[in-house]
UniProtKB/TrEMBL annotation, chain A:
Family annotation (PROSITE patterns): 2FE2S_FER_1, 2FE2S_FER_2
Any Pfam family hit: Fer2
Gene Ontology MF, one: 2 iron, 2 sulfur cluster binding
Highest rank taxon of the organism: Bacteria
Protein source organism: Paraglaciecola chathamensis
Taxonomic lineage from the root: Bacteria, Pseudomonadati, Pseudomonadota, Gammaproteobacteria, Alteromonadales
Membrane in keyword set: no
Keywords: 2Fe-2S, Iron, Iron-sulfur, Metal-binding, Oxidoreductase, Ubiquinone
Domain 2Fe-2S ferredoxin-type span(s) in chain numbering: 1-74
InterPro entries named among the record's database cross-references: 2Fe-2S-bd, 2Fe-2S-bd_dom_sf, 2Fe-2S_ferredoxin-like_sf, 2Fe-2S_ferredoxin-type, 2Fe2S_fd_BS, Beta-grasp_dom_sf, Diverse_Oxidoreductases
Protein name per its UniProtKB record: Isoquinoline 1-oxidoreductase subunit alpha
TrEMBL record, chain B:
Extent of the signal sequence: 1-23
Organism from which the protein derives: Paraglaciecola chathamensis
InterPro entries: Multihaem_cyt_sf
Origin superkingdom: Bacteria
Protein name: Cytochrome c domain-containing protein
Keywords: Signal
UniProtKB/TrEMBL annotation, chain C:
Name of the protein in question: Isoquinoline 1-oxidoreductase, beta subunit
SUPFAM superfamilies: Molybdenum cofactor-binding domain
Domain of life: Bacteria
Keywords linked to the UniProt accession: Oxidoreductase
EC number from the UniProt entry: 1.3.99.16
Length: 154, 198, 749
């Protein structure tokens, strides 16, 4: 089957039930999306499918249609997305394992809601678990990124 | 005998819509046997509608899906601060489809799935509602999606998300009976004048 | 002033701190440095200046030999070297380096001395310094005990200064000028007349310089990098998905595997049947894992997971406690002389005062459950055994033990093994263990020539942890007026040291101070004060969980102190202050009281609770503010004050405090590992959850620097969180939590 990841078309030959996460990580060597739980309860696997957030650990690859974006496609060290830049500015990460998922969820939130308040952030981000407890800085970085994005488009 | 049965069935098929039509426009005078069978049919429908697999998403305007049923132990709202939002599909918060795929997860405690995943419209409240309350709701076109009871039965029989209630995946107790049986209970009950409990 | 031609010495002498008592172990032997591990694999044109600095034509590499698990140690340790070396830490390459005894942790044993941290007498200080001696002989390279910065502070600055000296000597020879006419700045040596030579150009010349052993360190006032927030060198990669954790390692032609080990932890696997699994899609092999389980090797981790689920196992059972109730029964059963492990404090005459007080004595019992570490990154390791060589890629907190275990299991000599330490997606003590490394080597051995990545499922990870121990504490306290006149503390729990070190084949004699950590060693002076530890016989595996014994004992002690204050009608902070003379500890308590406006009117349904715990030498005071809503308790604010002695990077310290508080709150609110039929019941985040964004409070931090020596900060923020929360809940609701997790008795929103 064919899937499109970060703008590149790939041919993969796997069981249709294989979750997208494992197609990305083990078939395509795209290791940005992380394995944390396998049951959509930690968010470390979050990618975008047609710009919408998805927990790739729970999406059978046979059901995926459209353009897949992983953290690597959102931005690179030399060309970071505003959300990633805000994350670096606020030194959000501790161990960093959950952060690709956090960033993908945050970027999706800001697409839908350019000026999220605390309640909106609570609703959009509480399915992304961080065992290191970086939540205060995640919140601050989302608000900073939101402002940067609004200013850029103004 | 066979011909008689065939004629009876055909007559019933032809006449049934007529029954529905009359049910909407002219109050039916149900006989006593019909009433107890209708009440029995409705109670089965209530068993289905109030079952966790249905009621967990037929929630009030707090827009919070529920986690209830034998597999959950204690009843709670959906974890991780998940809310369907006013859109009932998570547009304002996190889209339901972020975690819920088109089919049930194969993993124990993984997310259930269906081609569509969303909360029922807010007016179709079943969570912690009595049999009488749900009965009145299902008959009310302003609260049942503008449907006739025949259309309600049809909806139960055809809708994919409704069907999920009987095929909820590993570890979750399905709603009782089946989609077809439930649709048939609705039909029978409707034919008898759709009486609601006191 | 050329120093060329002298006999070169590539080794590095440990810092010049005077060690008394070293004579017992042979001063000469102690002063002999470990060989420089960098010497073995120098490439052409590469120079090692101390075990921490590597220079070639392309640049400077600093070795930061501690596990980077989010505590920022890669950046901080490299900055210690970079500061003295006069090069920007953002402009160097930083590597973890190979496992080596030369990178041993001297500071990790410091707080194991029988002196409480407030005791800064010369005897106590000598004892702490003395612990460097056995630490060196053990030669253990370990990241833990909030000790990395403490251990590296002098050692790695000395390395930087020594390397800088060598470069100056080299430049002096090259330019034929006196060394004292030269200076350094940002990676270059600068001559009086403005010539600039990059370190990279001086490297090979510096190789033939005799390393000085009397370098002076910069005074704090001259620090350009230390003492202020340093952007973490791993931040960009962690925000762009380009950082490599153990689970991300890729090797050519690599296969993917998972394991299934007996869920009756410690018991064997009698047999397994692969009939339903062997022919599943993607499966390459199903291999025995010694006598404890099996491994499935496949072309994709998910195929391995699916096949592993279909193997039928015949598991042996364990003989220890089979249920949660039995665990706590075993703790209670250990409250007797036969199981007494330590009595680290026995001041005055507790029995007499309690006897005299009679019914006025306050008796309390508290409990804490087993807890899982639940790092975000499940256990994993990648290995290849080929032609008598072994390579292992893994996130480990103990690389030297990883090396020796890999050697033991593979049968290959250590010199033919390379351990590549990656980033850790969370440690919290879990990655001190060796099981995931051992299993990966066992699999690689059976797949000779093929690299294999062994990833545990979350279910396997959750149910095969070595847990934070369960514990029961019994207190008896007597108050007089607003004073505590007697306090008797008895705590019973299994021994972390016995369990953890036992798995490494080490049998430690003597008591396990972690059983009574944070109970006997606090800053309170109580006239009649006794603390006794009881050791529960070994059963379910237990291990170090962030802040170790303090994680449960902090809850016990600070709840009891609070209950006594309330019984005595005393303000909880005033009562504590009346018991403390150690000024730095008083300062953190007063600071947090200030931050929270303690004493001012509290809004309706709100409650404030305070707790003060010193662990790893760091006094930390926390005040939690909760509000009791109709749907449950909401944690609004946490105020934290901590004294680290000397703050090298305040932003990083603040991040650690926030992290530790959230970690402690999660355990207090909802963490619980239970047993049924001898097996752990919790399998994933649906029944072992942690605090999330919507429940995380606003956390206010204050860093104090009154302490006598530099301290670490990875763990000390955790122990006060649970008791401060319990005390706040009491203040808001009148409900007293005497066991964790609190969600057994109340709801949190």
């Amino acid at each position: 089957m064919q899937i499109n990841v970060n703008g590149t078309q790939h041919e993969v030959d796997v069981d249709e039930e294989m979750p997208l996460l494992w197609v990305l990580r083990d078939e395509l060597n795209i290791t940005g999306p992380k394995f944390g739980c396998g049951i959509a309860m930690c968010g470390a696997c979050t990618v975008h499918i047609n710009g919408q957030p998805a927990r790739s650990c729970s999406m059978p690859v046979g059901q995926v249609s459209g353009l897949i974006t992983t953290i690597e496609g959102l931005g690179t060290p030399d060309a970071m997305h505003e959300v990633q830049a805000a994350w670096v500015e606020h030194q959000v990460a501790q161990c960093g394992y959950c952060q690709p998922g956090q960033i993908m969820s945050a970027a999706a939130l800001l697409q839908m809601n350019p000026n999220p308040d605390d309640e909106a952030i609570d609703h959009a981000m509480s399915a992304n678990l961080c065992r290191c407890g970086t939540y205060p800085r995640i919140r601050a970085a989302i608000k900073a990124a939101a402002q940067n994005i609004r200013e850029k488009s103004a | 005998m066979k011909i008689k049965l065939f004629l009876l069935k055909t007559a019933a098929l032809i006449l049934m819509p007529a029954f529905f039509a009359t049910a909407q426009s002219v109050p039916v005078q149900p006989d006593e046997i019909s009433q107890s069978r209708a009440a029995e049919a409705w109670s089965k429908v209530y068993q289905v509608f109030s079952h966790p697999r249905c009621a967990n998403c037929h929630v009030p305007d707090d827009n919070l899906p529920r986690w209830s049923g034998p597999s959950y132990g204690k009843t709670s709202v959906h974890g991780m601060n998940i809310s369907g939002g006013q859109s009932r599909i998570g547009v304002e918060t996190v889209m339901c489809s972020t975690c819920h795929a088109h089919s049930n997860s194969d993993e124990p405690h993984g997310p259930p799935g269906s081609p569509v995943w969303m909360l029922a419209p807010v007016e179709m409240l079943w969570w912690q509602q009595s049999s009488k309350q749900i009965c009145e709701q299902i008959k009310d076109p302003t609260r049942n999606g503008g449907r006739t009871l025949e259309e309600v039965a049809h909806h139960i029989q055809e809708d994919e998300l409704v069907h999920w209630g009987w095929d909820p995946g590993k570890g979750r107790e399905p709603a009782p009976y089946s989609a077809k049986e439930t649709a048939d209970f609705v039909t029978l009950w409707a034919n008898a004048g759709a009486p609601c409990p006191e | 002033m050329s120093t060329l031609g002298k006999i070169t010495r590539r080794t590095f002498v440990i810092g010049s701190t005077a060690i008394t008592g070293g004579v017992l172990f042979g001063v000469y032997k102690y002063k002999q440095p470990y060989p420089n591990p960098l010497e073995k694999n120098l490439a052409q044109g590469e120079t090692a200046l101390t075990p921490y600095v590597l220079i070639n034509a392309n640049g400077v590499t600093i070795i930061a030999p501690r596990a980077e698990m989010g505590q920022g140690v890669k950046t901080t340790l490299a900055a210690l070297v970079a500061e003295e070396l006069d090069i920007d830490v953002q402009n160097v390459r930083i590597e973890h380096g190979v496992p080596s005894n030369a990178y041993y942790n001297a500071a990790v044993l410091e707080e194991g001395v029988p002196f409480p941290p407030q005791d800064t007498s010369s005897t106590a200080q000598m004892a702490r310094d003395f612990m460097h001696v056995p630490a060196k002989f053990f030669g253990v390279q370990v990241t833990g005990g909030s000790s990395s910065t403490v251990d590296a502070f002098e050692k790695m600055r000395m390395a930087g200064a020594t390397a800088r000296e060598a470069l100056l000597l080299a430049a002096s020879a090259k330019l034929n000028v006196a060394k004292n006419t030269l200076s350094t700045d940002n990676g270059e040596v600068i001559s009086k007349d403005g010539q600039r030579i990059a370190y990279t150009e001086l490297a090979s010349l510096a190789a033939s310089v005799e390393l000085p052993d009397d370098v002076k360190l910069k005074p704090k006032s001259e620090w350009k990098q230390l003492g202020r927030p340093i952007p973490r060198v791993d931040m960009v990669e962690k925000c762009t998905g380009t950082a490599t954790f153990g689970i991300d390692v890729l090797q050519k032609d690599m296969l993917y595997a998972t394991i299934k080990v007996n869920p009756h932890l410690g018991a064997k696997c009698h047999a397994f049947d692969t009939n339903n699994a062997a022919n599943m899609k993607g499966v390459k092999a199903i291999l025995p894992l010694a006598d404890v389980g099996a491994a499935v090797v496949a072309t994709n981790t998910w195929y391995a997971f699916k096949a592993a689920e279909k193997i039928d196992f015949d598991w042996a059972k364990t003989q220890y406690a089979q249920s949660t109730d039995e665990l706590f029964e075993s703790a209670i059963a250990a409250f007797n002389e036969e199981h007494q492990d330590s009595q680290n404090r026995d001041d005055g005459d507790v029995d007499a005062v309690i006897g005299a007080a009679g019914d006025a004595t306050i008796h309390r019992e508290y409990r804490a459950p087993l807890l899982a570490h639940a790092t975000m990154e499940p256990m994993n390791a990648t290995a290849i055994m080929k032609d008598g060589q072994l390579d292992v890629w893994v996130g480990t907190q103990m690389p030297t033990y990883a090396l020796s275990e890999a050697a033991r299991v593979s049968g290959i000599e250590a010199q033919n093994i390379r351990i590549h330490t990656t980033y850790l997606g969370g440690g919290f003590g879990r990655r001190l263990e060796m099981d995931f490394i051992v299993y990966a080597v066992m699999v690689a051995k059976q797949l000779e020539g093929t690299p294999v990545k062994v990833t545990w499922s979350r279910e396997e990870d959750m149910t095969h942890d070595s847990y934070r121990p369960f514990a029961v504490a019994r207190f008896e306290g007597v108050t007089q007026g607003k004073n505590i006149t007697a306090l008797d503390v008895k705590v019973s729990s299994p021994s972390v040291m016995e369990s953890q070190m036992g798995r490494l084949g080490v049998s430690l004699p003597g008591p396990d101070s972690t059983i009574v950590q944070a109970l006997w060693d606090q800053a309170y002076t109580i006239e009649n004060y006794r603390v006794t530890g009881y050791r529960v016989p070994m059963g379910i595996p237990v291990s170090s969980w962030r802040s170790v014994g303090a994680s449960q004992n902090g809850f016990f002690n600070e709840s009891m102190i609070d209950e006594l204050a309330i019984e005595a009608n005393a303000d909880p902070i005033e009562m504590r202050l009346s018991l403390i003379t150690h000024q730095p500890t008083r300062n953190v308590l007063e600071a947090v009281a200030n931050m929270a406006n303690w004493g001012s009117d509290v809004a309706e349904n709100h409650g404030l609770g305070v707790a003060l715990v010193t662990s790893f030498g760091v006094p930390v005071a926390e005040i939690v503010e909760v509000v009791n809503t109709p749907r449950g308790i909401k944690i609004l604010n946490v105020y934290v004050a901590a004294d680290v002695g000397l703050a090298i990077d305040s932003r990083n310290i603040e991040a650690q405090l926030i992290s530790a508080v959230n970690f402690g709150l999660a355990g207090a609110m909802m963490g619980e590992i239970t047993l049924l039929d001898g097996k752990v019941q919790q399998t994933n985040f649906h029944n072992y959850d942690a605090i999330r964004m919507h429940q995380a409070p606003v956390i206010h931090t204050k860093i104090l620097e009154n302490g006598e020596r530099i301290r670490g900060i990875g763990e000390p923020g955790t122990p006060p969180a649970a008791p401060a929360l319990a005390n706040a809940i009491f203040a808001a609701t009148g409900l007293r939590m005497r066991e964790m997790p609190f969600n057994k008795h109340i709801q949190f929103v």
